[in-house]
Amino acid sequence: MKLRAVSKALPKRVVNNQELACYLETNDEWIQSRTGIQQRYLVESESLEELCVMVAKDLLAQARLAADELDFIFIATMTPDYATPSVACLVQGKLGASKAFAMDVSAACSGFIYGLATAEKFINSGNYQRGLVIGADIMSRLVNWQDRSTAILFGDGAAGVLVEASDTSNLTVWEESLGSDGSCASHLKGGGATTFHLEGDSSKVELDFLTMNGREIFNFVSQTVAENITTLFDNSSVAMKDLDYVLAHQANQRLLAVLSKKTGIPETKFLSNIADYGNTSAASIPLLLADKVLERQLVLGSQQKVLLTGFGGGLTWGSILLNL
């Protein structure tokens, strides 16, 4: 499998830290010093479907392909426009991708990694030639905008890749490792708490909003996610010292520094764009990939060795070592 194209789509509205400080007890210096975030994009009238369709159309245009040449469409998201139909089916319909099957992947901030790993399995089966893997979330739907601890962190956006079968001599995926731990689900949860609504317990309405135990998430990243990365390299023919770059989920600039310290990978190899977008959940890794390809720091087909690492609600985590 190879990555043939990468693209992104963002809402029109940009909200900087100064704007948040107008109604939250915070300021730009406080936010930047603790998160590295300067601004984020937030939807006004845009739907998740619209953002994903923009990404999908650009991917097809770059690859000079028709929609009916796609075999599958995977959308990684935890903020779909509807419970059903899936965002992927809506995108498939808008594109006219009549030969593609479509499904959403729900793994929070690890979603793009899960989707990419799934796509590789379908392509390697020999029955599917190419497809789209898009990570997209409208996190502003889940955020309590009166809660400083979460309101400063999140943004909205979509980004993705077009993947297709490649000659076996051009190996793209060297190694992968995925994991989940539902026993820690309460550390990061929220949105659509229908169980409590059906019971008529209005005191649980706060579960419509995203809640996070910051200390537990920090421990999770510094221990479980770091171990996932080191174990992946222990099992790989690629040495950690030969790695060119790390594209980790853009949750918080401090967490990138923690992963660098815990894994021994130099912090200079951890690419970042969190200052411009905040935490965009499933969109963060492909959004970072798209930016760095546009900047020519990463080049598709260059054989650069990059590590993609996601982690988030579930709890979920996963890493994929790629040859670009």
From TrEMBL:
It comes from the Bacteria. It is an enzyme of class 2 (transferase). CDD domains: KAS_III (cd00830). Residues 103-182 form the Beta-ketoacyl-[acyl-carrier-protein] synthase III N-terminal domain. The keyword Lipid metabolism applies. Residues 250-254 are annotated as: ACP-binding. Keywords: Acyltransferase, Cytoplasm, Fatty acid biosynthesis, Fatty acid metabolism, Lipid biosynthesis, Lipid metabolism, Multifunctional enzyme, Transferase. Transmembrane segments: none annotated. Its EC number is 2.3.1.180. Residues 235-323 form the Beta-ketoacyl-[acyl-carrier-protein] synthase III C-terminal domain. The active site is at C109, H249, N279. It catalyses: malonyl-[ACP] + acetyl-CoA + H(+) = 3-oxobutanoyl-[ACP] + CO2 + CoA. The last Arg residue of the ACP-binding site is essential for the weak association between ACP/AcpP and FabH. Belongs to the thiolase-like superfamily. FabH family. Homodimer. Catalyzes the condensation reaction of fatty acid synthesis by the addition to an acyl acceptor of two carbons from malonyl-ACP. Catalyzes the first condensation reaction which initiates fatty acid synthesis and may therefore play a role in governing the total rate of fatty acid production. Possesses both acetoacetyl-ACP synthase and acetyl transacylase activities. Its substrate specificity determines the biosynthesis of branched-chain and/or straight-chain of fatty acids. This is Beta-ketoacyl-[acyl-carrier-protein] synthase III.
